[in-house]
UniProtKB/TrEMBL annotation:
Biological process terms in GO annotation: aminoglycoside antibiotic catabolic process
Top-level class of the enzyme under EC nomenclature: transferase
Domain annotation Eis-like acetyltransferase: ranges: 193-277
Provenance organism: Hominiventricola filiformis
Ranges in coiled-coil conformation: none
One GO MF term: aminoglycoside N-acetyltransferase activity
UniProtKB keywords: Acyltransferase, Transferase
Protein name per UniProt: GNAT family N-acetyltransferase
Length: 410
């Protein structure tokens, strides 16, 4: 078995491998771009696994992102289209490919990684921790608050493209969890059928993307309007978008809004999902929580060299020893010492620890990205702390009080 980057002359093998792994989800554009990507990568680099005869038996796409992690832009590596030949299932092909791509990223200065899981348990074993969550709301248009003004809205024009992308990039640079990718950002936004921008005083203050989803009715007049992405600079912009949604009562059954905002249902007069998913017969469902990507520290030392700041000032100066279990990357299976003072975190060695935190790499990754707080890990017994009096200071030092937000699928 050999794992290496795919050569241009192996494009047909690569296409077959991806298509058989994702028979209903392989975009035609991905296949069309493959020959060029193998020569001049824009989307990412294809890594292949080959048997003794040189036949490809697995592949994945290695993608390089910038990611806002706790307010700092970091290099982030993401595998996509992890594919195994139907003839070689259960032979650890995907496992070996993922281990190699993690090592390549870690050895080239990329301290963190992320992926969208087809099976969270499978990737949790490989050290990826739970990260982003969204809520899908689906109110009827008449139950969305209308503010009477949507005069700033217009469909995006081709000449708006770069301005919208720059608006998104500025949003990502100040939003924990958001990513930047020159190829993916453009396609994520403009491959959607409809892009609506809001302009106020000649300046873009927000945009959204949407498409239509058929619903089961006796007439073809009704659809759901699915809002895939909605980013606003301020509440005045959001009010114009809401007024737009509220005006769709004649042809739209429901507006499906995917959002990271926990209290978004306050913008509806009735947040009922309308799917009769009532608990105990009368307590209505208001939204449905869905999972986003998983996050992983690929290089512990490099991560804490870059992430040298606290979320909040700690109440005392102390040395924290992290005893990390990582069965997938031996380089992370070790003890790490951090000296913490005020709002600074410093990687140190050979000091006496004031407190010890035992954890696996997946749960540590969820903690530092702000997906799950330390108190939850201690409550469930997933982490062990030698002195829980330090728990809040540990949370303030290496955790994050804001949950991550990200709209990019990869």
């Amino acid at each position: 078995m050999e794992i290496r980057f795919v050569k241009p002359e192996e494009v047909q093998q690569l296409a077959r491998n991806v298509q058989t792994a994702f028979p209903s989800k392989t975009p035609q554009a991905l296949l069309d771009n493959m020959p060029g990507e193998l020569v001049h990568p824009d989307e990412g680099r294809y890594l292949g696994c080959f048997d003794e005869d040189g036949t490809m038996i697995g592949s994945l796409l290695m993608m390089d992102f910038e990611m806002n992690v706790r307010g700092k832009m970091m290099k982030m590596g993401a595998p996509a289209y992890v594919s195994t030949s139907f003839l070689h299932k259960k032979e650890h092909v995907a496992k070996n490919l993922l281990r190699v791509q993690m090592g390549v990223f870690a050895q080239t200065g990329t301290a963190v990684g992320a992926l969208h899981p087809f099976n969270p348990a499978f990737y949790h074993k490989m050290g990826y921790g739970y990260c982003t969550e969204q809520v899908m709301y689906s109110p009827r248009p008449q139950y969305i608050r209308s503010y009477g003004d949507k005069s700033g809205l217009a469909y995006a024009k081709p000449e708006d493209e770069e301005e919208i992308l720059e608006f998104y990039r500025q949003y990502a640079r100040k939003t924990h969890g958001a990513t930047i990718h020159s190829f993916m950002d453009k396609h994520r936004i403009f491959d959607e059928p409809y892009v609506v921008v809001c302009r106020r005083n000649g300046k873009i203050t927000g945009y959204l993307t949407f498409d239509f989803v058929e619903v089961d009715h006796y007439t073809d007049m009704y659809h759901d309007l699915a809002v895939r992405e909605i980013i606003c600079e301020d509440m005045e912009t959001m009010k114009q978008f809401l007024t737009f949604f509220a005006s769709q009562t004649d042809q739209i059954e429901r507006v499906r809004i995917y959002t990271y905002e926990e209290y978004f249902h306050m913008l509806f007069t009735n947040p009922d999902s309308g799917e009769n998913r009532a608990y105990d017969g009368a307590i209505q469902e208001t939204g449905r929580k869905i999972m986003g990507f998983m996050f992983r520290i690929l290089d512990l030392d490099d991560y804490f060299r870059q992430q040298n700041h606290c979320d909040k000032p700690v109440s005392r100066e102390f040395t924290l020893e992290l005893q990390v279990e990582d069965s997938f990357m031996e380089s992370n299976n070790k003890k790490v010492q951090l000296h913490i003072k005020d709002k600074e975190v410093k990687l140190v060695r050979g000091q006496r620890a004031d407190v010890i935190l035992k954890t696996n790499i997946a749960d540590l990754s969820s903690l530092v990205i702000g997906a799950i707080p330390l108190e939850a890990f201690l409550w469930t017994g997933r982490m062990q702390c030698s002195d829980t009096a330090y728990a809040q200071d540990i949370q303030n030092a290496i955790g994050w009080s804001q949950k991550p937000k990200n709209y990019t699928y990869f």
